[in-house]
Amino acid sequence: MMSSAEIIPKRKWQYPLAIEREYAKYLAAYIDKEAAVIESFLPEMAASVYRNRIRVDGFGDWLGNLVDKIQRKVSKAVSAVPVLGRVFGQVDKHVAHEMSATMDSVYGRKPRNNTMPRELEMLQTIWTSQNLTLIKSVDQQLMDKVRFALSQKVISATDKEKTIAELTQEIQDITGAAKKRATLIAVDQVGKLHSQLTQYRQKAMGIERYMWRTMRDSRVRMEHRARDGNIYEWNNPPSGGHPGMAIRCRCTADPVLDTGKFALVPKRNSFIYLPEDGTIKPDRVLASSEKIPRVFEPNGVIDSVNAKGHVYRTFYGADGIMVRQIHSDDHGNPKHHPYGEHGEHTHDYVWNSDGTKQVDRRADNLTPQERKENGDLLWWQRKK
Ligand SMILES: [Zn+2]
Ligand SMILES: [Zn+2]
Fold first, then answer.
1. Residue 35 — very low, low, confident or very high, per pLDDT cuts 50/70/90?
2. Alpha helix positions (H), 251-367
3. Do residues 260 and 1 lie in contact, with contact meaning Cβ atoms separated by under 8 Å?
4. Distance (Å, rounded) from C-alpha 251 to C-alpha 222?
5. Who wins on pLDDT, 307 or 344?
6. Mean pLDDT, to the nearest integer, of 271-285?
7. Is the model's pLDDT at 312 over the cut of 90?
8. Are the C-beta atoms of residues 95 and 201 closer than 8 Å to each other?
């Protein structure tokens, strides 16, 4: 039985990408429905514009009335309330699953998942009302733009047919922009909710600290890349908040488990120790003659050794596709690799949508965290 120690599960906490996509899709469809209602008013809009184009005095009235009428019909046709309940439930279920799967991966069983119902309820109330406000602001902006387009037409309207054609195009542009905004909101809000519920579940389990984890792909912001592998306290968030709180952040928090807290023995090979042994270990080592595969295990790590005996390390993403490499020298070409102390550098891989074609492969310096985690690659520092 090990005495009290702090360990990190090897199993990576999963980000709820599928739920994020579903919510984004739903909000896009919500705007589509809204657009269809607005477009059904096109003949009436054009007729009103045409009829009122000279009568400047009654301007505000008819336009206000028409916009109100459209808005009433829109709010009858669409409601975001049901989906908010569903998305909250899905993210909550996802986080509860991650919590118990994490404990299962380390202890071979799931300690009781404590819950604090009142706190959960409060999180739901706040998240739901924030989302309703955000969606309402998209609706409002959309209607404001429609109103503006109509008032412009009163000034510049030519014939009815042309007015309808122009308004159709303008409304499509307006709803297209609203759709983009709604999608961004969905993605961002799932990330924020996932962050809050992760904090809630981990704290309920008695976990006070976590290791910051990024997706290790090219979309990770530099500031978060530098945090990858750092330890933070739930009660003391770093600037910008816990993982997932920054706009569109997909970073996650791997729990730091205090083995003294659970009357269970961790399984061999299921965890790493903190912080002394917080270095990365490869899942496979290839000889210099072997080809580094494009696809490997999800979140896998492959080391390969070149002719000089220098180790290169390749990282794979959650989908098993190569995302990053650390090259521990300048490939004998210092001119093209003006990095680090001995040319050591990273490559970020960017793939096309199905991951079959490489779109970009940019080089960069190692972050301080990468130097720490991959210290064994820095061959000139190795003890003889
Ligand atoms: Zn992030
Ligand atoms: Zn290279």
1. very high
2. none
3. no
4. 12
5. 344
6. 73
7. yes
8. yes
Strand 345-351 relative to strand 322-327: parallel, antiparallel, unpaired?
A: antiparallel
**Average pLDDT rounded to a whole number, residues 180-198:** 97
Relative to beta strand 284-286, strand 301-305 is parallel
| Helix (DSSP H) and strand (DSSP E) numbers for the chain | 8, 12
What are the Cα distances from residue 95, in Å, to 104, 116, 193, 220? 14, 14, 10, 22
Which of 183, 178, 181, 191 lies closest to 24 in space, CA to CA? 183
What ligand has the least distance to the C-alpha of 331? 2
How does DSSP classify residue 347?
E
**What is the reported pLDDT for 130?**
97
Mean pLDDT of all residues in 104-120 = 83
Six-digit token string for 76: 């009858």
The alpha carbon of 189 and the centre of ligand 1 are apart by a number of angstroms equal to: 14
Compute the distance from residue 364 Cα to the ligand 2 centre, in Å: 9
Q: β-strands 311-316, 252-255: how paired?
A: unpaired
For the CA of 226, the nearest ligand: 1
Helix (H) or strand (E) holding 376: none
Enter the tokens of residue 122. 């409060």
pLDDT score, position 381:
80
pLDDT at 2: 46
Per-residue pLDDT tens over the stretch 150-173:
888 877 767 778 888 999 999 999
- Tens of pLDDT, residue by residue over 193-252, are 999 999 999 999 999 999 999 987 878 888 898 788 888 999 999 999 999 999 999 999
Compute, in angstroms, the gap from residue 305 CA to the centroid of ligand 1: 31
Tokens representing residue 137 in the block: 């602001």
pTM over 0.90: no
Which residues lie below 8 Å from residue 200, measured CB to CB, with a gap of 6+? 95, 116, 119, 120, 123
Domain regions of the chain by residue span: 9-204, 284-381
Q: Give the CA radius of gyration of the chain.
A: 27
207 touches 256 (CB < 8 A): yes
DSSP code, position 257? E
Kindly give the distance from the C-alpha atom of residue 28 to the centroid of ligand 1, in angstroms, as a whole number. 24
Strand 252-255 relative to strand 271-273: parallel, antiparallel, unpaired? unpaired
3-state SS, one letter per residue, for 155-184? HHCCCHHHHHHHHHHHHHHHHHHHHHHHHH
